[in-house]
Amino acid sequence: MSTQSRSKFLATLDGHVTSTPPVWLMRQAGRYLPEYREIRAKAPSFLDFCYDPQLASEATVQPIERFGFDAAILFSDILVVPDALGQHVRFETGEGPRLTPISNAADLKALRETSDQGKMSRVYEAVERVRARLPQDVALIGFCGAPWTVATYMIAGQGTSDQAPTRRFAYEQADVFKALIDRLVHVSIEHLVQQLKAGAQAVQIFDSWAGVLPIAEFERWCLAPVLAIAKGVRAQVPNAKIIAFPRGSGVNLPQFEISDDIQALGLDTSIDPHWAARHIDRKMVLQGNLDPLALLAGGRGLDEAIDRILTAFRGRAHIFNLGHGILPPTPIPHVEHLLRRIRAG
Ligand code: CP3
């Protein structure tokens, strides 16, 4: 295939160094876009929106049409997985997710072993619709939450700042917690494989809360399950491209090199790009890691932050992204400016 029609994002995931890096932004579809807010009002709840193939595919494509990013990420949420396992999940406006907490073995037993395909098939239909609408050279990314991060919401029943309820649960009821993580590994493999079969060309595993764990727990609850998912996905889709985003894992990042099933590592805002370029094996493609607040603020601080990242990763396979999701008050002209500056080389 000619490099013209081939996606720059996929070429980079294959290890090629392009003249300027491909770019997409975590949470690039969403509330900072007026066209998203307009269609969001058409669904009674956020989960209804996620399960509506027409609305979810429209939201996925919106940032591509407006900005021309190199990749689209499916519009969905990591919490469709607990919802499809039968846990009660809802999103309170302005407050974030609320779930009926899993407190013991009986609560876990009450969940399904596998996801409700009646719900999940609508997510895969959204993937199909998006792929049919995207230009050839725009890649489509599917995703799931990593088991640890999804479990923090399942056990606390909501987001917390330090994940203390789930860390405590993992110590006090280690066997139950292991069974929950194993179930999430299993259903996440299935979820990613289905997205890849429906037309996603790469998948990202979001471990947003990897950074709160001591090393032994990090290895057991973050690293091992993410590697197990990557292995399980590639057993079914041999050349699947997998990006791990273990947010906050700092100096533990090189541990992901032991797997050949992960092609790229997402770097969070706290990682020094020069450190990453020096200490992470070149077989790993690196993605990141502009501070979302720098993008929100704009001006000289933004330009300096962009240039520091571009300089650090020059000569290396790098996907430009934020270090975490775009913030809702981010001005649209700042995103346009970001793309122009990156593509100017
Ligand atoms: O990146 C994208 O554009 C694709 C869509 C996407 C969403 N959530 C849409 C969303 C993705 C990839 C996610 C992942 C996600 N969801 C993560 C991992 C990444 C991260 O941010 O750490 C987590 C932890 C969640 C769980 C979640 N979903 C929370 C905590 C919240 C509430 C906080 C918030 O930002 O509102 C959500 C809701 C959510 N997910 C919204 C969107 C656009 C906002 C809901 C709305 O539009 O009303």
Written account of the structure:
Helix content is 48%, strand content 12%. The longest helix has 25 residues. It contains 15 helices and 9 strands. A hairpin with a 3-residue loop joins strand 2 and strand 3. By secondary structure, the protein is an alpha/beta fold. The structure holds coproporphyrinogen III. The site of coproporphyrinogen III has 24 residues, from strand 3 and strand 4.
Which helices and strands appear, and what pairs or packs with what?
Blueprint: H1 8-13, H2 34-40, H3 46-50, H4 53-67, E1 71-73, H5 80-84, E2 89-92, E3 96-99, H6 105-109, H7 117-133, E4 139-145, H8 147-156, H9 164-172, H10 174-198, E5 202-207, H11 215-236, E6 242-246, E7 264-266, H12 273-279, E8 285-290, H13 292-297, H14 299-313, E9 318-322, H15 332-344
Parallel strand pairs: 1-4, 4-5, 5-6, 6-7, 7-8, 8-9
Antiparallel strand pairs: 2-3
**Category from helices, strands and their pairing:** alpha/beta
Mean pLDDT: 97
Distance between the termini: 25 Å
Query: What's the β-strand tally?
Result: 9
Strands in their spatial order, largest beta sheet: 1-4-5-6-7-8-9
User: What is the molecular shape?
Assistant: globular
> What small-molecule ligands were found?
coproporphyrinogen III
Q: Beta fraction of the residues?
A: 5-15%
| Elements, N to C (H/E) | HHHHEHEEHHEHHHEHEEHEHHEH
